[in-house]
Description:
With 761 residues, this protein is mostly beta strands. It has 6 domains: 4-116, no CATH class; 126-306, Jelly Rolls; 314-410, Macroglobulin (MG2) domain (Immunoglobulin-like, Sandwich); 414-516, Immunoglobulin-like, CATH 2.60.40; 526-623, Immunoglobulin-like (Sandwich), CATH 2.60.40; 629-760, Immunoglobulin-like. 11% of the residues lie in helices and 40% in strands. Strands 3-2-5-10-7-8 form a 6-stranded antiparallel sheet, with no helix packed on it. Strands 14, 15, 16, 18, 19 and 20 form a 6-stranded antiparallel sheet that branches. Helix 3 (36-56) crosses helix 5 and helix 4 runs parallel beside helix 7 (98-108). The longest helix has 21 residues, at 36-56.
Amino acid sequence: MQDKNYRKQLEAYVKEGLHRGYSLYEIRQRLHENEQSVVEEAISKVLGDLVKEKVKQGYTVKQLKQSFRDNHYPPELITKALSSYRETKQARDIKIQYFVLFLALALTFSLFLTNIGPGITGLVIAGPGQTTELKVQVCTAAIAESSNNSFPDACDGTYPTAGTDNLGADDTNIETHSRGKSQYGGVNVTIFNSSITNCASILSVELCHKRWATSGDTEGACDVSIDNDETNTWSQVNATCTGTSEPSGVTCQNVTNLEGSWTCGNFFGASGPRAQAKVTGSRTSTGGGTVYNTDVLYYKVIYTETVADTAAPSFSSPVNDTNISQYQNNTFNITLTDETQLKNYTLSWNGTGTGSFVNETTFQIGGSSTTWNANTSENSSRRGGEVIGWLYYACDSSNNCNTSATQNYTVPADHYWNNTSLSLGSKTYNTGNMSSITYANFSWNNAQSATLTCSQGNCSVIKANVTTFTVGAYYQYPVNFTCDSNLGLGYAETNYTLTTNFSSKQRQITASCTITSANSPPNAPNLTDPSNNTATTLRFINFTWNNSQDPNGDSLTYNIVVDDDINFGSTAINVSAIVQEADGNTSYNSTTELDVDKQYYWKVRANDSQAYGSFSEIFTFNITSVTTITLTTDLVAFGNLTIDENNNTEDNSPLPFTIRNDGNVRLNITIYATDLFTSSTNPTSKYQFKINESTEGVCWASGTQTSWTNFPNNITSSIAIAYFNYTDINDTAQIEVNITVPSSEQTGDKNSIITYIASVA
Length: 761
């Protein structure tokens, strides 16, 4: 006979399970060790309360149907839940429309008939006689103790269950311990089950107790307390004395929110701070009954557990590529499925070597996939007609492993060349044949005949030594291709096609060769300009030489090499494919600027498109640096000016000075001038210059004086034109002049001499 508290615990379990999203099937599975009629009553009660709550909230029948459909509740339980409310208008409405609801729910009934999968957390009740046993393991007693927290004596029963358990059930086995006036009697127990190792969390804790004093006793202080960390810091559950008659039932009180949070270690596993409970009572006087009775003291716990994963991965949809011949990649596909998480898979097959099964590299599956398409590509050496067997091994994250069924694949017959392109090389004309052997391979396990035909190209130059032949099983047949150098010059290419009596495939090979004429290279040219051991100021040199003679009359090109090293280790100029000119001489105008004040060496050779001839003798020349500047406009005349009058050359009236770099190096130009005025001597703002570009554009670098600057009166280190260019297309600059007549200047002719000094930049 189950008591009320037990029924309420079952109802709490059902309600919590629905709240967590479990199907009714899952809830029944987790409560399968309990009396099923009581379980069904608990389910009906919870569903009835749910319907009542939703009816009070104003749910329509349509909304109720949708709610029930979403939660997959079975029709027979909905009928039972609705029947208790048919007296209300809402219930009558539900009853009228229930037939439609029953049909809708019947369609979804199969949806919740699913098994509990591994890794899903379930709800379990623990206590004496429950799904999980949870009994007293340690018991100590208080006999006439002055403190209600002192238990130095032995209990009447033997704990755990080697002897009599007086506290695990409402029966005639009772712990009885004496007490006196202001003295306590009672028990202190520690309750756990170390064999349970799959607890995930504690959801609900109740303490159940039954205690009373003997007849004639006078009740004093009574105490029921708990402690979940073994520190004897107690939380009181009940301080009510129950009198001197045995209570009619057991009192179970929810203590989930006492003592902070509860952990699995309080009740389960190998270790942890264990849950304790105590019952004590004292009396207020002497005489009469002195015994305090404790018949029941235990915890009832609802906890979650994790179901172990014991199911290995499964396999489906095996498939491999079709018509894959010997020495081609074959991809083997299969779908892996696991209830929790796939870990890895391995292909095992017999496609190579002696044909024994071998394992390929294991593939690790990342993430938390429960389905995976395994595909592995391997190159097979099995011949036509042979059978490749393959299978997969797969393991999940719990190291449950499985092996798929063996799949078989027959390799189709085939034939092929070792090389699809064969070069026989190059041969000089009329010097005989050249040849090369390649192999025709036959992937089949029976004798066969083969035909080799020239299908395209110059079949008379490149020939095969066979046309039809017969080979046995698993053969390579050598085919010798030859190129006849007596039959013409140039490049020859021929396609040959191989066919067999067992396959419709045609396999081609392309053979090629090159036949060249005998050749004599051209002689060395004679160098003419610049002549040997000469000096020049040009930095871009025009090189000239006499043309070479070729014994075969071939057209010629030239290669010129210039270096400041007579061994030509790091050439300044190295140009090829210079086309020979027709007037007996060939020239090359260099685009490379050579350095000044340096000795250079040069040489030339001819090429007839087949070979180079010998280099010419080596000539040498020197490039001398030249520092020369020219004033192409060397006079600026301002004419008559009055006191305080200003004039400058920016408007080309008068024209400014113009200077040109006629050397072959870049220059720095400095300027100074004699005094123009007697009342204001240099340097003065009355007499200034700046550099401006000519029509050729800018020909200087940064540091050039491009703003009005006072003329210095002697040589300074200040540069007027920096890095003055020397190339003809951009080697000219203008010197603008700006003058202002001082207010105290005397009348008369005024003149100044400007000096320009050039130095190598």
